[in-house]
Design a protein that fits this description.
Blueprint (H helix, E strand, L loop, with lengths): L1 H6 L2 H67 L1 H10 L6 H21 L6 E8 L6 E4 L9 H5 L4 H6 L8 E3 L6 E11 L6 E9 L2 H8 L7 E7 L4 E5 L2 E4 L7 E4 L5 E7 L7 H45 L14 H61 L2 H18 L5 E3 H18 L4 E7 L8 E3 L4 H12 L6 E14 L8 E10 L6 H9 L14 H12 L4 E7 L3 E9 L6 H6 L4
Parallel strand pairs: 12-14
Antiparallel strand pairs: 1-2, 1-5, 3-4, 4-5, 6-7, 6-10, 7-8, 9-10, 11-13, 14-15, 15-17, 16-17
Length: 596
Amino acid sequence: MKKKKHAHSLRTQIVIVSMMFAVVLALAASAETYLVSYRYLRSAQKQSLRNNLQVLAGEIDTDLDHTMTFLNWLSFDSSVNNYLMLASRDDLSFSSYKSQAVTTYDRMLDEFYSCELRGIVDRAVIAPADGNTFIQIMTTTGNSRFETSTLMASDYFQKLMQENDVWTGIVESSVGGDSQKVIPIVRPIFSSSSSKTLGWVYIELSPDIVSNQFSHYTLADGETLYVTIGDGHSYVWQDGVFQEAKIPDNVISCSLQENGWSIHLATQTWMVPPAGELVHIVVLLFVFMVLFGLLLSVLLQYRITRPVNRLLVKIGRTANGDFTRDPSIEWDDELGTIGKGINDLSENVDRMMKKQVQDERTKQELNYEILQSQINPHFMYNTLNTIKWMAVIQGADGIADVSTALSRLLKNVAKGKGSLIPLSEEIHLVDDYFTIMKYRYCGTIELEYDIADQGLLSCMVNRFSLQPIVENAIFHGIEPNGGAGKIRIHIYPGESKVETPLADHPVPDWFMDVTDNGVGMSQEAIQKTLSGQSTDDTDFFRHVGVSNVQQRIRFHFGKTFGITIDSVQGKYTTMHFHLPQVREGDKTVVQNSDRG
């Protein structure tokens, strides 16, 4: 049981959660380290391959520059221009043609070798526009025969003549009768003095311009070289030859200076971080995690576990009845705040228990006093009943009436615990009280009822709610005006339905106006009367004034209901009751009739 409790302790849970967090953190750090290393190595490898590719591209660019230099020279050299103009004449003599052709050939050969084009250009030809004659330079020992008609009839000749920057890629050349792979270049040659086309130049660029450089590049396993010549002409370098192929995705590319030329390197072998270093990092992180967990466990032992145990001991002592304050658990931290709260709670419980004992003692004393107060009214109305019968025997009707009224009044004070009674009973109580007052004032006061609906007599009202209002009308309204006056009680139904705690649904309301023709009241007196600040208490039923009735009505029926006062000084005062129509048979009324 102890082990189970220890396993569920706060310290154990915090340590476990912290260790789990550390494990996740260690794994995340290891994974991130591996990914960063992998990305760094891959980036470094890419950069290294790109640098090598740029060096390779630079060598090819150099050869292409030499070729384009030679091509530009052919297009603008004056001797070439003179040869083409001479070859285009209809009255051409053989001696003149031969002399200019030899001169032009020598110039072409000198320029060819000065541009270092041996092994790069297989054939260079210039010819007039009709192609009837031509001058040819060859660097190979192959067939020197050249047919201009075959070249001019090829698919690429006219396209290359019209667009200077277009490349056709590697094609089969059969202009000399031997089929071989070449990269053809065709450019028009214009007159130096006008825009007239004098002829054209044709160069067979050898694929060796690329293959010579590719053959010197050391390829690792899984690496492949590609070249793109012109728009959409791509080739793969395999087994020393070029084969047309599509450039794959995710290759390293490098563009050449000549438009439309680029080389590419595809690799399937990427460097990965050494596994040993990764394991080393993970081991270090786990060692750090274990040390962190041990340190956290020790820290929690001193900062949480021990203080919590002391708080539990204090709670146990409090549960066993020891409510004394323990200052040793009030530390300067959150747990100390809890300890202070436990001490305050213990003192409050001790204080409440002592107060409860005192209240119980006081309650017993009050019950004894109530028992004594109930004995006196019983003794009094029994004595008054004896006086009544003596007065009847002697013919003193007035004494009999007063004794009977006072006896019934005192009996109502002493009997029952119910706070709510039917209006009819409250009216009987008022009648008994008014009988006594009528004899006291020698019949100079009158009480009149105006009941619009007899059914309202069954509505529930607070016991002794109407009598204090009538008493207030007599002593504070009629008596100061000379002792003679009239009280009118008007009872009538309302016109709306109202909510009340004594009913589960809205019920009709009703009103009762108690009006006297006495001295009236000022607004200040009205406010004091309703708030209970008036100091004018009567000799009969002291402390049961208008404010008391107001509070009891609102307590039972709700704050919507109660008494309002309307008065004109020197003319009248009206106490205006507003109440809901709830009756004794209502379930809610029966359950709440003893409230208060």
